[in-house]
Specification:
Strand order of the largest sheet: 1-2-3-4
Shape: elongated
Distance between the termini: 130 Å
Number of helices: 6
Number of domains: 3
Largest sheet: 4 strands, mixed
């Protein structure tokens, strides 16, 4: 009986020792796996931090380069503007000197020729003249500009007549009339309240207004309509 109990005890001891040894091995493997994973995570985090630092450095470098380029552009632009102003001043001074050397008759002739294209009251031909002559030349330039604007309105009326003909509306006439040719006068059988309504809803009034027209008239044998622009 005592010997049997001893064998049983020895068997249980060997089994328990084997089990504890296996459990210890598993625990060791788990610990090693956890440590390995922690090392991988630490390495990944270090790489992420390094990448973020590299991106931040690149962005800072690009910002510094952009700032330097912007400053360079500003300096170059300022230098260009200064040089342009200097050259414009030299040209203006030369034009004033040339205009001042002309006689009043020569200045008027030159101004009329120049204003056939475009001129304004700051033109050297006007600025170089004495006060009394300057006032007269300004009046001449203003009249030339008004005549040129009136001619453009007359050309617009002719063009609009062609538009109506293309629409087969057979207008009697379309003209720029009134003071300074500032009224667009349309004559035709179609001049009704409805036609004026449709006309004012389109693009024609805004274009006519920009060209200096002040009013649109549309007359037929049955009556007429007009609209301020």
């Amino acid at each position: 009986m005592g010997e049997a109990w001893a064998r049983l005890t020895r068997g249980l001891g060997r089994n328990l020792g084997a089990w504890l040894g296996g459990a210890a091995l598993v625990l060791l493997l788990v610990i090693l796996g956890v440590r390995r994973r922690m090392a991988v995570v630490a390495e990944e985090q270090a790489q992420i931090a390094a990448d973020e630092h590299a991106v931040a450095e690149r962005l800072e470098r690009e910002r510094a380069e952009a700032d330097a380029q912007a400053k360079k552009n500003a300096v170059e632009t300022a230098a260009w503007v200064k040089d342009r102003q200097r050259r414009d001043a030299e040209i203006k001074a030369a034009e004033l000197a040339a205009a001042g050397a002309l006689t009043p008759a020569q200045r008027e002739k030159a101004l009329r020729e120049k204003c056939a294209g475009y001129c304004d009251d700051s033109d050297p031909l006007i600025a170089a003249a004495p006060p009394a002559e300057r006032q007269r030349l300004r009046a001449i330039a203003g009249q030339i500009r008004e005549n040129a604007a009136a001619d453009k309105r007359k050309a617009f009326a002719i063009a609009y007549e062609h538009v109506l003909l293309e629409r087969r509306m057979n207008p009697d006439s379309v003209k720029a009339t009134g003071p300074k040719a500032s009224t667009l006068s349309i004559r035709g059988w179609f001049c009704t309240k409805q036609f004026m309504y449709d006309l004012m809803k389109g693009d024609t009034p805004s274009v006519a207004r920009e060209m200096g027209f002040a009013k649109v008239e549309c007359d037929s044998a049955l009556g007429g309509y007009e609209q301020e622009l």
